[in-house]
Amino acid sequence: MPLRLIANWKLNGSLEFNDQWAENFFKNFSNSNLKSIGIAPASLYIDHIRKVIGDSGIEIGVQNICDVESGARTGEISATMIKDLGCKFSLIGHSERRIFFNESNQTISKKLILANNNSVMPILCIGESAEENERNDTHDVLKFQIDEALKDLFEASSLIIAYEPVWAIGSGKIPNPEEINSVHKMIKDVVQSRFPKIDLKSVLYGGSVSSENASSLFAQEHIDGALIGGASLDGKEFAQIANVFNELK
Ligand code: PGA
């Protein structure tokens, strides 16, 4: 099964953390389906993570790429570079990038194109704020984010979308699973009808996913997997979520 459960480690980790994480993960993971799992560590640790997970089949990706290919962008990392390191995917447009780094839909669109050109699977993150949710604007906000991000993408591009309500990230709050399911269905319909040449592989949910709520989420037809922040930092907890996923999907 292709990528369905992605650990987003954000600005966390160390050499010791990586070793400990792998030990805890492999001790508690009770399946052989590792191909559906991806880890997005801080890019500096890509090689070390690869050593500690060995040839288990877990994919390694990054949390961000630059919107230009090379040149005067001090501190950035390009899609070509991560491809060079064997990374298979990149998160693009995570809400923390949109909020703390002022990433616009236009920048996100450029990043998607570069990821695709380099055969790096883009994980496009979209989601509404708490205020937008309270105003019942969720569907409109998501449609706008999808349109703006995808309008310049080439034909036959592959894509994963992660629906992450901004108010659910790191807060312990999640929308009810039926609501998420209907949002995911809407996302699939919108991409299929407006961008029929884009191959949408799956729609993941992200925002306070844990081993406690995993079964209620994965029981839903259109929740194809998850993008997991806080709970992915504990190898045991992440393995437990993956075990639930493998029972239900
Ligand atoms: P969380 O983060 O699981 O800690 O809510 C998810 C994310 O930001 O991708």
Can you characterise this structure?
With 249 residues, this protein is α/β, with parallel strands linked by helices. The chain has a single domain, classed as Aldolase class I (TIM Barrel, Alpha-Beta Barrel), CATH 3.20.20. The chain is built from ten helices and eight strands. It has helices at residues 15-28, 46-53, 79-84, 95-100, 105-117, 130-134, 138-150, 177-194, 214-218, 235-248; strands at 5-8, 37-40, 59-62, 89-92, 121-126, 158-163, 199-206, 225-228. Strands 1-2-3-4-5-6-7-8 form an eight-stranded parallel barrel, surrounded by five helices. The radius of gyration is 17 Å and the shape is globular. It starts with a strand and ends with a helix. 42% of the residues are buried. The model has no long low-confidence stretch (mean pLDDT 96).
Q: Give the count of structural domains.
A: 1
Helix content range of the residues, please?
40-55%
Share of residues in strands: 15-25%
At the fourth CATH level, what is the homologous superfamily?
Aldolase class I
Q: How many helical elements?
A: 10
Number of strands: 8
CATH topology: TIM Barrel
Largest sheet: 8 strands, parallel, barrel
- From the structure provided, what is the oligomeric state, counting identical versus distinct chains? single chain
Level-2 CATH architecture: Alpha-Beta Barrel
Going across the major beta sheet, what is the strand order? 1-2-3-4-5-6-7-8
Low-confidence parts: none
Q: Compute the average pLDDT.
A: 96
- Under the CATH scheme, which class? Alpha Beta
How would you describe the shape?
Answer: globular
Structural class, from helix and strand content?
alpha/beta
